[in-house]
Here is the input.
Amino acid sequence: MNSPATTEYARQLRALATKIFVVLSLGLGLEEGRLEKEVGGMEELLLQLKINYYPKCPQPELALGVEAHTDVSALTFILHNMVPGLQLFYDGQWVTAKCVPDSIIMHIGDTIEILSNGKYKSILHRGLVNKEKVRISWAVFCEPPKEKIILKPLPETVSEEEPPLFPPRTFHQHMEHKLFRKNNDTLNPK
Ligand SMILES: O=C(O)CCC(=O)C(=O)O
Ligand SMILES: [Fe+2]
Here is the structure.
């Protein structure tokens, strides 16, 4: 879909993602353009929209909405219809995200977790159905090019005390690895 509204939304999200990459780079003690460069540059960043529709359900505890997962993306932006349902696994328990008017939710995805050697966490989350109301969420996944870059911890995030936590992989390999729940050996064939 390429209506003027979606094109404008994509433009605004790209601008926001650019700023977030700056902040996250500085947070790692890197130059401000570094993470943007390491995810392959803004021109190559693919924005994928997924619409989640959660029908209302009298017994939410018996239903599966979106099962617990982490996003493979670099960043994910989420808008929703102000019905609670997004939960994050934080401090050993599921916490329901507050619905804050005029705000956008942003997740850090696996891509940034790998590049930062786990200093930024790709949070485990899930989507629950609601007892009384239909819930809709619009998730935009900002993804690096599938084959063009190798995802691995940046040298500056690695030290003797903090060895690399993730073997190198392309984004495509990372998606396959998650999809088929392969072990790390398949990412690093000897
Ligand atoms: O519905 C939500 O708020 C989250 C959905 C989600 O995590 C996803 O689509 O990856
Ligand atoms: Fe997600």
About this structure: The CA atoms of residues 22 and 32 lie 5 Å apart. The beta strands are 46-54, 66-69, 75-80, 86-90, 93-96, 105-108, 125-127, 135-143, 150-151, 169-170. Helices lie at 4-27, 34-38, 110-115, 171-179.
